[in-house]
Amino acid sequence: MYGDCGALQDALQIFDQIHLRSNASWGAMIDACVEHGKVFDGLKLFRKMRSLSVEPSNATLVSILSAYAEQGDLVSGRAVHGHIVLSGLELNVTLGTSLVDMYSKSGATEIAMEVFSAMPVRTVASWNCLIHGMAINGHGARAKCLFEEMLHDGGVCPNEVTFLGILNACSHTGLLEDGVEYFSLMSKAYGIMPNIKHYGCMVALYGRAGRVEEAIEIIRTMPMKPDIGIWGALLGACRTHGSKELRELLAAQIMKIAPYDTCGYLLLSDAYALDRRWDDVVDVRKVMREMVIRKMPGFSSICS
What keywords is this UniProt entry annotated with (predicted)? Predict the structure, then answer.
């Protein structure tokens, strides 16, 4: 109960008071940590659980695979897969989909395909994980083939997540005509109204193709107000294909929407730098310092 409510300290206090912990007790605590962003704590509990020779349930394995997917920890994820095989556990929909998700997010798309092919039953979530995995790893053509196969299979109907995955794949690999067709297919064939993320994919798709005016038209006609993601996608296109005046206007718009976010300031600074306007670059950085805005440092999730 405490875990589901996000009260992790209370959940841990109760967990520590349990003298005889079953795999369900461990699983509930691990799932709560992973679900509420305490991934490292969840993984630490999982390692302790295994050191005590407690066999994890399917539900716990799903949570741990989700954690390894989040971390991109392919080695540990494969170890869990090995445990599943050696234990003779059934590759049901939930466990199979979690493996596909973990391998996809870790860049091992071939193994993700193998697991997907071995699954006796697949849901829309299974297809979504694989299509999204191909998209984020730059395999737009393969994502398109999977999407078409899913549509022709007939047993599974795409949802808004499916279309987000295929539009993202089209955007990253320049499949403009396919992206436009799929965007139209959403509402006409499946009655799914595009949300702001779908529109963001279309803005990026047109922008990367150098068709900035059409990207602007998408923003002008969409039924909701553009957010920072939409303006950022358009600004990214303008860095290559648009005018410098438009770049500055877009960066200013982002700063207006999210004044304490580094995104707009950094994009404006980059726009000035491209034009070699170094005094303006210095001014933007000065504003960031005065507002105590700092660029988030990069970090690596690779562990020894």
Answer: Repeat
